C-alpha cells in the first residue's frame, strides 16, 4: 500500500510520500513514489503515485518520453499549463490501460493507479490535481487545500482539523509529518523512508527535497511530541459527570 499527501497552500506546495511497496509479507521493497519534472526558471512539477507499481512506472515513463496527440508529441516538459499537464497524466493512464489492462484482468489483477500532480509553469497559477485510474481528475481548492492517495483514512483527521489554505508551508510540513506518522502507526503496508518536497509559489524550483528515515531527529521529535500531546489532551478532558 501507499500513503501520499499534498497541500496546496497560499504560499506554496507541501508534498510527502512513503516508499514501501509490497506483494505479501515476505516481498517488501523500497521505491520512490515522488517524481520531479523541472526546467530551471521555466517550470516545476512533482508527481506522486499509488497503486500497482508496474502500472505507475509505465505512466511515469510515458510522461517522460511523451504522448503522440495527433502529430505532436507532448510531455510534462512541453505542457503549456498545469491543467494541460493533468490532462496528459490522465491520457497516459488511459494508454497504459489500453496496453496492460486486459492482460492484468486476465490474471485477476486489478488496474490500480492514482496520482497527485502539483507544480507551476512560469506566468501561470500554481495548482494541484488528483488523477484517477479512469484518467479523470479533480483539483485542490482553497476550501479543500489538500489531496491524498493510497491509505488515506489514518492521516486525514489531523488535516481536516488543523489545515487551512493560509497555513504557512513550514507549519504544513509539521501537519503532513503528523499525518504520515499516524498512518505509519496504524498500517504496516506504509513504511519508511519518506520523501518530502516543499515548493514556494513562483520560485519554479524546490525549496526543500528531503528523504526522511527512522533516524531523522526532526521526525523523531514530531513523533514523540505528537504522542505526548495526545496523551496530555486526553488526560485534560474532564470525565463525564454522569459516570458518577
In short:
With 244 residues, the chain is an alpha+beta fold. The protein has five helices and 14 strands. The strands form four sheets. It has a five-stranded antiparallel β-sheet with strand order 12-1-2-13-14, with helices on one face. Strands 5-6-9-10-11 form a five-stranded antiparallel β-sheet, with helices on one face. The protein has a two-stranded antiparallel sheet with strand order 3-4.
Shape: globular
Strand elements, count:
14
- How would you sum up the major sheet? 5 strands, antiparallel
Give the count of helical stretches: 5
Question: End-to-end span in angstroms?
Answer: 45 Å
The proportion of residues forming helix, as a percent range, comes to 25-40%
- Fold-level CATH name: Glutamine Phosphoribosylpyrophosphate, subunit 1, domain 1
Regions with little confidence, pLDDT below 50 for 5+ residues: none
Radius of gyration: 19 Å
Strand content: 25-35%
CATH class: Alpha Beta
Q: What letter string, H or E per element, gives the SSE order?
A: EEEEEEHEEHEEEEHHEEH
> From the 3D coordinates, which CATH architecture would you assign?
4-Layer Sandwich
- Which sequence of strands runs across the widest sheet? 12-1-2-13-14
Average pLDDT works out at 95
Structural class: alpha+beta
Count the domains.
1
